[in-house]
Every structure is written in C-alpha cells, then in structure tokens.
Amino acid sequence: MKAAAFAYARATSVVNALELLAMNGHKAKVLSGGQSLMPAMNLRLLSPDILVDIGGLAELRGITVTGDVLVIGALNRHVDLLRSPEVALHARLLRDAVAHVAHPAIRNRGTIGGSLAHADPASELPACVVALDATIVVRGSAGERRIAATEFFRGIYETALLPDELLVAVEVPVAGQGSTFFFQEYARRHGDYAVVGLAARAVVAAGRFSDLRLGFFAVGDRPLLAATAGKLINAAVTPALLAEATSALADELDPQEDQQATAAMRRHLATVLLRRCVATLLARPELETGVGK
After folding, report:
1. What is the spatial distance between Cα 277 and Cα 199, in angstroms, rounded to a whole number?
2. Same structural domain for residues 134 and 237?
3. By residue range, what is the domain housing residue 100?
4. Whether residue 266 is found in the same domain as residue 240
5. Where is the domain boundary, 173, 200, 217?
6. 33 near 110, Cβ under 8 Å?
7. Which regions of the chain are under pLDDT 70?
8. Residue range 12-33, pLDDT digits in tens
9. Per the domain annotation, does 139 fall within a domain?
10. What are the start-end ranges of the H helices in 91-236?
C-alpha cells in the first residue's frame, strides 16, 4: 500500500516547527528519521494531513554533559548513540540497547526522539529511559516541560506529548560510583521485534543492590518499571529471595498474547531475564571508575 495524500513542510527552526504544529494540531505529524512513521503511513495506520520535517534542525543534535546530567538531543540517530564516548561512559545502557534495534539501515536513520515519541511498547529505548530515570524535555507554544520518563508513556503509541509540542531532548543522570547495567531481549531473529526484553540499571556495593531499576518491554502497552526490584534492594540475594522476586514479577506482569508469543511465554521469559540480570550484575566486577563493565 501507499500513504494517503499529505502536505509537507520542512521546518527551518524549532520555533518554526512549533508554529507549524500549533497551526495544524492533530492533523500534523512530526518527521525526524521516519523509520517508524513512514511504514505506518504506508499501511494507512496513520493518515496525517501534513508532515512537519524537523530532520534538518542542527539545534536538536549533539550529546553533552552538563554537571551530573547527560543531555541527548532528540535528533541524534541510533548510530550516534553507538559511537558516542559520552554515552559509553555515562549511560552505556543506551549503547547496549541500540545494538539490538532493527538493522544498520534503520539505525543510520532512526532517532532517539522519534523512537520515544512513537512509543512502541516493544521498542528498546523507551524501556531504557525508564530504567535510567531519564527526563523527557518537550517544547510547545506554552513553553518547555520536563516529564519523567515513567510518566511520559501512556499506552500503545501514546505519550504525554500534546499536539503542539515537540520532543527536543532527553536528560539522563550520569552513572555514579558502583553503577552497572544489563540489557537483553528475546526475539525470533536479531533485529526483529522483541518478544520480551529487560533494560536494567543498578548500583552495587558490597555484593548488594543499593539501587535497582528494572525496565521491561514487550510485556504490556508501555514499558514497565517493575516494583519487584524493591524486594532485592539492600538485601542479601538468596535463592529463596530470588524465587520470591520472580513470583512477584510474574504476578505484576500483564502481558498480551499475539502471533509472536502467548502471555504465559512472555511471563516465563521475563522471569528468566530477571534471574539472569541479577546473577550478571552481582557477579560483575567494577571498573576503577566505579562504573560497571
């Protein structure tokens, strides 16, 4: 199929993009990398009246560290995250996750802002920003808002973005002493949509978790920050405690059944990932900087 007819406007600045969005409201869609938007339009799942192309806005690129915050512009491509020394040092979870996103052609065009705004529940990056306790920065006609990643995703392809707002950046707290990360997903083939995945950030001291954030994806209508992690913080992780945590996780999940997997399979794979994550993070030696390998 082909997309329905639409108008096209190439924004010359963020201000210009916001003007175009304010004029067109729900009839407009923002085009950045287009790797999710265009297939959806070709399948007639989306039929905007106008595309507002922000792909040429240099002000939405760049990766910088300001104080204890890593600031990532919305138009940084997946490949930029893979190559960034700042991401590797301060938020390596993003680099690890991006390696699983689709295929090189997609990673060369797709952007972090586009991925987050699209809010596919099987996507890797939404779960990562939830696990990293990131803040999503959006700008609109009423000014700028900062939204906690845990509050940004509202459902399947649904976010807290208003029709006249643009996602402009992601702010991630830099990794501190003892920080370490885990990422793994199950997919039928590398690059396919995940059946189940887990993005985790932890702080480990003296063989225990002093902090643990577990961001599961492809287990519901949005990324899930598992409350189960609380059972494993400031406690000796014994086989009995881990069994209790996996049972609690299975109760917490409400996965959907589709052509890829049954709900029972997703629930089982999520508990397997939890066990693997805990074992990996507690066994991992720390670098001299305090950031886990």
Report:
1. 9
2. no
3. 61-173
4. yes
5. 173
6. yes
7. 285-293
8. 999 999 999 999 989 999 999 8
9. yes
10. 92-98, 104-107, 112-118, 124-131, 149-152
- Assessment of whether the complete model's pTM goes beyond 0.90: yes
Strands 50-53 and 7-10, bridge-based pairing: parallel
* Lateral strand order in the sheet of 28-31: 7-10, 50-53, 28-31
Q: How many domains does the chain have?
A: 3
Are residues 159 and 67 part of one domain? yes
Element (H, E) at 83: helix 78-83
Rounded to 5°, the CA angle 23-17-31 comes to 105
- Please indicate, yes or no, if residue 292 is contained in any of the structural domains: no
CA distance 249 to 97: 22
Domain CATH for 97: 3.30.465.10
Query: Is residue 293, in this structure, part of any structural domain at all?
Result: no
**Which pLDDT score is estimated for 103?**
74
To the nearest whole number, what is the mean pLDDT of the chain?
A: 92
Q: Does residue 222 sit in helix, strand or coil?
A: coil
What pLDDT is recorded for position 271?
98
| Residue length of the chain | 293
Of 103, 51, 55, nearest to 76 (Cα)?
Answer: 55
Q: What is the DSSP letter of 103?
A: -
In a shared domain, residues 90 and 153:
yes
Report the distance separating Cα 197 and Cα 218, nearest Å: 7
Last residue of a domain, one of 173, 191, 214: 173
Instruction: Based on the fold, state whether residues 261 and 222 are members of the same structural domain.
Output: yes
Work out the angle at residue 120's Cα, subtended by the Cα atoms of residues 156 and 173, and round it to the nearest 5 degrees: 110
Task: Report whether 251 contacts 235 (CB < 8 A).
Answer: no
- Beta carbons of 185 and 124 less than 8 angstroms apart: yes
Tell me the residue ranges of DSSP E strands in the chain.
Answer: 7-10, 28-31, 50-53, 63-66, 69-73, 135-140, 143-148, 153-155, 158-159, 166-173, 179-187, 194-205, 208-217, 224-225
